Amino acid sequence: MRWITAPVVLAASFVPTAMAQSPIPEPDLGADVRGIFAARCAACHGPDLVKPKGRFGYVLDLHKVANNPEMVVPSRPDESELWTLISRNEMPPSDSPQGPLTASEKERVRAWIAAGAPDARPATTSAPRAGASDTSANHVPAAPLPTTERVLRWLGKLHLLALHFPIALMLAAGAGELISIAKRSRVPAPGVQFCVTLAALAVVPTVIFGWLFAASGNGIGSSQLLFAHRWLGTATGVWVLITALGAERDAYRGLRGWDVRVGLAIGAVLVGLTAHIGGLMEHGSDFFAW
């Protein structure tokens, strides 16, 4: 029996060694994250949308996402706008029909950025891996938004309507003041006073609506432009209010001051620049391409 037992023992001794030496495949973070984005984000930011939200329609193109410095700083999740939005539960928004990201999904996105934001491996790009996010398996129904938040989100949409008034009125006020300068008149023109007063009344809700609109996730694809548009728009609103107060003072005393004329000129430039940045953010730099 020894001549039978010895080979069996010898063969059995090689089994654990062979199993130990078999390579364990490394997790494909790119495929995992792409699966998460496909399940949670593609409905608003997918490549098939005619007008993706915030001009961010390439969420499934991990290479493009990773190479957008406004979104991702590879190996530095804490400096990445994408992770900031996800960690604050701003993206996906609370009213997303796909539901919020789970803690596990958030951690995988963070690990993906920390690993250098790699693309999905070619062999697994089209086939989801085990453990990757699946809409049917991991779907968390979105809780209904409180009435207050729904109202605030709806009000934010009014920004797209209200913004035209302070822009047009400040430009009209500036043009009217140029006519007074050309006539060498220091008497405040009623038309200019009318325009700048209405501009001041319109600019306050326009700025407020703009902040609410951005809080709903609009402009996520151009975070630097969004930052500039937010704060330049807020500063412009303050400038318009100060200019309107000066114009009211001039109307009371019947003499136009040069400080108001400078204020009107700068105000017209500011509203134009703010509108231009907003247009770039919404429509892109190639909107008027010939």
TrEMBL record:
Keywords: Membrane, Signal, Transmembrane, Transmembrane helix. InterPro entries: Cyt_c-like_dom_sf (IPR036909), Cyt_c_Planctomycete-type (IPR011429). Residues 118-142 are annotated as: Disordered. GO terms for molecular function: electron transfer activity; heme binding. SUPFAM superfamilies: Cytochrome c. The chain crosses the membrane at residues 161-182, 194-214, 226-246, 258-281. Residues 1-20 form the signal peptide. Residues 123-138 have a biased composition (Polar residues). Residues 41-95 form the Cytochrome C Planctomycete-type domain. It holds the Pfam family PSCyt1. This is Cytochrome C Planctomycete-type domain-containing protein. It comes from Gemmata massiliana. The lineage of its organism: Bacteria, Pseudomonadati, Planctomycetota, Planctomycetia, Gemmatales.
